[in-house]
Amino acid sequence: MLKVSGIETYYGKIQALKGISLEVNEGQVVTLLGANGAGKTTTMKTISGLLKPKLGKVEFLGEDITGLRPDQLLRKGIALVPEGRAILSSMSVYENLEMGAYHRKDNEIKKDIESVMAQFPILEERREQLGGTLSGGQQQMLAIARALLSKPKLLLLDEPSMGLAPLIVADIFKLIREIKNNGTTVLLVEQNAKQALKVADYGYVMETGKVIFNGEAKDLLEDPRIVEAYLGKRASTVESVRS
Questions:
Q1: Which of 6, 38, 45, 37 is nearest to 22 (CA)?
Q2: pLDDT for 5-24, tens place per residue?
Q3: What is the DSSP string of 61-115?
Q4: Whole-model pTM?
Q5: Measured in Å, how far apart are the chain's first and last C-alpha atoms?
Q6: What residue segments make up the domains of the chain, in order of their start?
Q7: CATH, range 2-84+152-242
């Protein structure tokens, strides 16, 4: 479904991605792991059109989409839930959900909003509440629900559990499983490596703008390099992965 080949992305003169290549197959949850500054969010921004690579190619369903704008990619079926959620704080929950479907021309939008709110009961309860007054967990639910209303084929989730209480984190990962089971492919950047690998089919480990290794999620969960760097009690840096 998604193929990223040799991507090099810069912030000014600083090179953030140094030849990133990865693939996401239809129906999978694929996760990107790595320490802060590894390039995970930059990878997501490049795929979603927020950043343009200097070199490399991004393909979606066999089409070269490198350098297309986010709104063009949304119409092709790629939706991003960014780090920090980026909800419309001065608009109601319902209005935020409407904005998720702004590009659609069909007559099913209201029906789909009601369906999404049934999936997210807290949003139904707070449908008239301003987005900015929701809790962090509720805002994350709203951001994901809004993205789903675009009817994406591929959903990009950037740090969905960041800053959330453990019970809410559990709800987020349960939701990711439901999204996959409902037929949407997911590319996930997540600081909680253990939970990410439990929900994922495949994983890539990044360091300083490069993929240093990859594999089936179930294998990475048992890989001593991953355990030491991300899952062990004393894990602090990704450097131990390379030792």
A1: 6
A2: 999 999 999 999 999 999 99
A3: TTEE-TT--HHHHHHHTEEEE-TT----TTSBHHHHHHHHTTT--SS-HHHHHHH
A4: 0.89
A5: 34
A6: 2-84+152-242
A7: 3.40.50.300
